[in-house]
Amino acid sequence: MLPPFQILGRVITGYGIAVTIGLLVCFFFLTRQANRRLDGDGDALLVLLFAGGGAFLGGHLLFGIVSLANYGFQTITSFDGFFRFMNDFFGGSVFYGGLIGGIIAALITVRVMKLPWYPMVDLLTTIIPLFHCFGRIGCFLGGCCYGIPSEIGFTFRHSIVHAANGVNRFPVQLLEAGFNLALFFVLFSLFKNEKLRGKLLFLYLSCYSFARFFLEYLRGDSVRGEWAIGLSTSQIISIALFIIGGLGLIIKINNINSTREAKS
Predict the structure, then answer these.
(1) How many whole angstroms separate alpha carbon 2 and alpha carbon 7?
(2) What distance in Å separates the CA atoms of residue 213 and residue 148, rounded to the nearest whole number?
(3) What is the Cα–Cα distance from 60 to 39, expressed in whole angstroms?
(4) Cβ of 43: how many Cβ atoms within 10 Å?
(5) Which of 38, 162, 183, 235 has the fewest beta carbons under 10 Å from its own?
(6) How far apart are CA 117 and CA 12, in angstroms?
(7) 18-66 pLDDT, tens per residue?
(8) 3-class secondary-structure state, position 236
(9) What is the value of pTM for the model shown?
(10) Which residues of the chain have a pLDDT value below 70?
């Protein structure tokens, strides 16, 4: 929706603008809450740094796996061919890959630094849907992750994906952005009121994966991969994360109830 433009010789995109704003908002939110509830923001920022590295690697890795599954290996006969191969197959990023990579990196960092699960992991969990909201707005502005053809929607003129242009499409990116924003407020309210302590990550996984499974049916891009019984890569991952989130909540709640019974 927003055509790229140049400032001082650098190409600026709508996606880049939205993500940059999202990073600044999340940084401000994290430092403010960490100073209030964690006696300083140093540990939280360090965990976030490692989580960001894990998200970067995970997102590109899953994009490469999906690309290889869709198009197969290419014959590489030169260094230029190798770099083109790496750019084509690992140049993009998939949210779920970034989410899984970021969570793994964050949990390892928390364990190595011997930090408490609550409130550290709970606080970092609230940031995920907040940043994702800005990311999906960026997708809408850039024309990627576009929706199915629909009478209700928008027509892209400057999408980075040619197939999206000239067709009226359902704004699935904005719908997902709105859902993520609502999920952020729910998680933050629970965090602020100290409800479901130590369980917000599992709650987030359950809620987002459930919504994402059905949002995939409103997606019109074909690069997501299609597997058994017509499910996309993200739908299969959604099922797995929904089970993990649900089991995590059940186990955590049962452990708390067992502890209370033992004390009584």
Answers:
(1) 15
(2) 15
(3) 34
(4) 17
(5) 162
(6) 38
(7) 999 999 999 999 999 999 888 777 899 999 999 999 999 998 888 877 7
(8) helix
(9) 0.87
(10) 1-5, 67-91, 223-228, 256-264
Alpha carbons within 13 angstroms on the beta-carbon side of residue 36 total: 9
Instruction: Show Cβ contacts of residue 193 under 8 Å, excluding neighbours closer than 6 positions.
Output: none
DSSP class of 232 = B
In contact, 90 and 60? CB cutoff 8 Å = yes
Tokens of 212: 């994402």
Tokens of 61: 């890795």
**What are 192's two structure tokens?**
């602020």
**Distance linking the first and last C-alpha atoms of the chain:** 61
Determine the pLDDT at residue 170: 94
Omega prior to 3 cis, within 30 of 0: no
Counting every residue, how long is the chain? 264
